Amino acid sequence: MTRAALLVLADGRFPAGGHAHSGGAEAAVRAGRITGAADLEDFCRGRLHTTGLVAAALAAAAALGVDPVALDEAADARTPSPALRGTARKLGRQLLRAARAAWPDAGLDALARTFPRGAHQPVVLGVTARAAGLDPRDAAYCAAYESVSGPATAVVRLLSLDPFDATGVLARTADEVDLVADRAVRAARAALTGGVDALPAASAPLLEIGAEVHTALPTRLFAS
Amino acid sequence: MHLDHSHPHAPAEAGADARRPDGRRRALRIGLGGPVGSGKTATVAALCRELRDEFALAVVTNDIYTREDAEFLLREAVLPPERIAAVETGACPHTAIRDDISANLEAVEDLEDAVGPLDLVLVESGGDNLTATFSKGLVDAQVFVIDVAGGDDIPRKGGPGVTTADLLVVNKTDLAPHVGSDLARMAADAKAQRAELPVVFQSLRADSGVRDVAAWVRDRLAAWTA
C-alpha cells in the first residue's frame, strides 16, 4: 500500500466528472441561501454532517469489504430524490472508469459488470480505495472532504466568490471532517457485522428538494 | 448477493481504444471546437444533413449553461432525437473535452449502445477560448472553427486550437467585406501557424456550404475503416 494513493484519489483534478457538479450549491445560490463565504460555510457544515456522513460511511463500508450490492441499495434508501440518485450513479460510473484505469482490480471489474449503468458514487469510491491499497478511513476522508470541496469550488464560479475565502471555509471545516470520518468508520465496522442498517441515514431535506428543482431548470451552470 | 469475481479481468474501457468491448470497431469520433458564435453548431448541422444518408451518425453536444446546441439540432431535425446527446460541463467546456472526459466518453458509448453500430460521432464543444483542444482519449481528430467576424488576427495569434487542430475552418467568409476582414491575410497567417495542416474557408450561406469540410470527414472515415 502507498499512502500517496490517497492524494491521487482525493485530488480535485482526478478525472471522475466532479467538475460538472456543485453538490447542491447552485440550487442553494439560486434560492438565496448561499450569498457569500459565511453562508457557504454553514451550507458546507450542514452537507458534511448529512450527505457527507452517509457517503463517508458507505465508502468506508465498501472499503472494508461490505457487499457493494447491499451498500448500493442502502444508498438508494438514503437518497429520496430521484435526481440525486441519478447523479450518484452517473458519478459512480465516471469514477469507476477512472479508477479501473488507475488501479486495475478484479473488484472494480466485478462492480462494473454488476452495475453497467453505475453504482452510487460513495460505494464505488470505497471499492476504489480498497483497490488502491487504502484503508476504510482513507475512503471516509475522501467522501467527507468531497462533500464540502465540491460546493466550495462551485460557489467560486457561481458567485465569483474570492477563492481564498472559499479555501478558508474548507480549512475551517477540516476539524469536522475528522469527526465525520471517525463516525463513518465506526458505523462501517458495525455494518460489517450487523448489516447495512447500522449505517447512518442523516438526511438534508433542502438538498433533496433543491436537487429536484435544479434538475428541471432550463439553464444552469452545473448538472447538479 | 455477492459480486462475481470468477471472470478474468475485462480490459478497462479506454478512450483511445479503437474496439468496442464486443470486438467491433467503434465509430470514428471527430471533435469540433472553437470560440463562441463561430458556427460550430451550424457546421455540425450542415455536416449531419450532408452525411446522414451515407453514414450512421450521432452527435454529442457540450453546452456551457443551457441545452441550446442540442435543442437547435433537434429543432432543425438534422438527426432523430435519439442520435443527439447533451453533456453538461459545469461552466467549463474545455475541462469536459480535455481534462476530464469521462462524461463525454459515456455519452459516446451510450449512443453506440442505443443506436449503433455507428460510423461517426461528432463531439461538439461549447464555445471556449483559443487554447481549448480535445483530448486524444476522446476524439480521433479535431476541427477548430473560427470566423472572419471574430477578428482576422486570430490565425496570427495562434494558440493550440488554431495551430494543432487537424482541420482549421474559417467560417462566415460571406461576412468578410462587411467586417473588414482580410481573407488573404488570414490564409497566410494560418499557413504560417499550421504548415501543411489543412484550412478550409467556408460560408454556409454559399452554394458550396459545408462541402469541403464534409469531404475532409469522408477522407477521415475512409482512413478509419481502411
From TrEMBL, chain A:
GO terms for cellular component: cytoplasm. It comes from the Bacteria. Keywords: Chaperone, Cytoplasm, Nickel insertion. Its main location: cytoplasm. Pfam families: UreF (PF01730). It is found in: Cytoplasm. One of its GO terms (molecular function) is nickel cation binding. UreD, UreF and UreG form a complex that acts as a GTP-hydrolysis-dependent molecular chaperone, activating the urease apoprotein by helping to assemble the nickel containing metallocenter of UreC. The UreE protein probably delivers the nickel. PANTHER family: UREASE ACCESSORY PROTEIN F. HAMAP family: UreF (MF_01385). Belongs to the UreF family. Required for maturation of urease via the functional incorporation of the urease nickel metallocenter. This is Urease accessory protein UreF. It comes from Streptomyces longwoodensis.
UniProtKB/TrEMBL annotation, chain B:
Residues 1-21 are annotated as: Disordered. GO terms for molecular function: GTP binding; GTPase activity; nickel cation binding. Residues 30-200 form the CobW/HypB/UreG nucleotide-binding domain. Coiled coil: none annotated. CDD domains: UreG. It is found in: Cytoplasm. Keywords: Chaperone, Cytoplasm, GTP-binding, Nickel insertion, Nucleotide-binding. One of its GO terms (cellular component) is cytoplasm. GO terms for biological process: urea catabolic process. GTP binds at G34, P35, V36, G37, S38, G39, K40, T41. InterPro entries: CobW/HypB/UreG_nucleotide-bd, P-loop_NTPase, UreG. It holds the Pfam family cobW. PANTHER family: UREASE ACCESSORY PROTEIN G. Homodimer. UreD, UreF and UreG form a complex that acts as a GTP-hydrolysis-dependent molecular chaperone, activating the urease apoprotein by helping to assemble the nickel containing metallocenter of UreC. The UreE protein probably delivers the nickel. Facilitates the functional incorporation of the urease nickel metallocenter. This process requires GTP hydrolysis, probably effectuated by UreG. Belongs to the SIMIBI class G3E GTPase family. UreG subfamily. This is Urease accessory protein UreG. It comes from Streptomyces longwoodensis. The lineage of its organism: Bacteria, Bacillati, Actinomycetota, Actinomycetes, Kitasatosporales. The gene is ureG.
